[in-house]
C-alpha cells in the first residue's frame, strides 16, 4: 500500500504532524517498501519536502532502515531546494554510525555543503564529525575537521558545538580543543554563551 496519501500535503495539512506519525509507523514496522517509495519521490516537486521529512524522521528512530540510501542523500547536498539539502544532511547524520566508512569517505562533500549551507546543514555536519570522532579508525582526522569547524563557525553556535563535542574529547585532543575554545571566547559578546564555553573548558581541565 502506498504511503503517499498519508503525507501532510496529500492530506492538505500545513503542519508536520502527519509526516511525523508516518515516520513513527515506518520505523516501528521496519517498512522497507515505504522507504523505497519515499526515496523514489524525492524528485517529485509536489511532495519532495514531505518525503525528506519522513525519511530523516524515520532515520532518527531506525537508522538502519534508511542507511542503504546514503548515496541518494549525498546527491541532495548540492540541491537548490534548501529543505532537501538540510534534510539530507540530517538523514546522513542519523546514519553515520551505520556506515562510518562511506560517511568518512564523503567528508569533502559534507564539509563543502556545510560551509555553504544553512545553520541546520552545518549543525548536522558538526554532529557527523563528532560521531566519527567516536570511531577509532577515523578519530584523528575527524577531530581535526571538527576543530576547523569550531574555529570558523558563527560565534553563537560555538557553545552548543563545544558541549556536544565533550564526550569525544580525550587526552590526545584536549589541549587543542581548549586552545580553540579560548581563541573563540573573545568574539562572544553574550555573557550566557561565554559562560557555557567557560564551563566546558573548566570541566576538561
Element-by-element helix/strand order: HHHHHHHHHHHHH
Question: Which bin fits the share of residues in helices?
Answer: 55-70%
Query: What proportion of the residues form beta strands (DSSP E)?
Result: under 5%
Backbone CA Rg? 18 Å
Unreliable stretches covering 5 or more consecutive residues? none
Q: Describe the main β-sheet briefly.
A: none
The separation of the N and C termini measures 56 Å
CATH class of the domain at 62-204: Mainly Alpha
Please state the overall shape, judged from the principal axes of the Cα atoms: elongated
Task: Please tell me the CATH architecture of the domain at 62-204 by its name.
Answer: Alpha Horseshoe
CATH topology call of the domain at 62-204: Leucine-rich Repeat Variant
Overall pLDDT, averaged? 96
Counted beta strands? 0
Structural class: mainly alpha
Total helices: the number is 13
Amino acid at each position: 500500500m502506498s504511503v503517499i496519501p498519508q503525507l501532510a500535503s496529500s492530506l492538505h495539512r500545513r503542519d508536520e504532524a502527519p509526516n511525523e506519525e508516518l515516520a513513527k509507523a515506518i520505523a516501528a514496522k521496519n517498512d522497507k517498501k515505504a522507504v523505497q517509495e519515499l526515496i523514489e519521490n524525492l524528485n517529485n516537486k509536489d511532495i519532495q519536502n514531505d518525503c525528506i521529512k519522513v525519511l530523516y524522521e524515520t532515520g532518527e528512530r531506525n537508522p538502519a532502515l534508511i542507511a542503504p540510501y546514503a548515496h541518494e542523500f549525498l546527491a541532495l547536498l548540492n540541491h537548490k531546494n534548501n529543505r532537501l539539502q538540510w534534510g539530507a544532511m540530517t538523514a546522513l547524520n542519523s546514519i553515520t554510525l551505520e556506515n562510518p566508512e562511506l560517511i568518512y569517505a564523503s567528508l569533502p562533500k559534507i564539509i563543502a555543503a556545510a560551509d555553504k549551507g544553512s545553520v541546520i546543514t552545518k549543525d548536522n555536519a558538526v554532529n557527523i564529525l563528532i560521531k566519527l570522532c567516536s570511531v577509532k579508525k577515523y578519530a584523528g582526522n575527524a577531530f581535526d575537521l571538527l576543530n576547523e569547524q569550531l574555529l570558523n563557525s558563527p560565534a553563537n553556535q560555538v557553545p552548543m558545538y563545544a558541549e556536544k563535542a565533550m564526550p569525544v574529547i580525550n587526552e590526545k585532543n584536549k589541549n587543542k580543543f581548549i586552545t580553540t575554545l579560548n581563541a573563540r571566547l573573545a568574539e562572544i559578546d553574550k555573557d550566557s554563551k561565554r559562560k557555557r564555553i567557560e564551563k566546558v573548558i573548566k570541566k576538561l581541565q
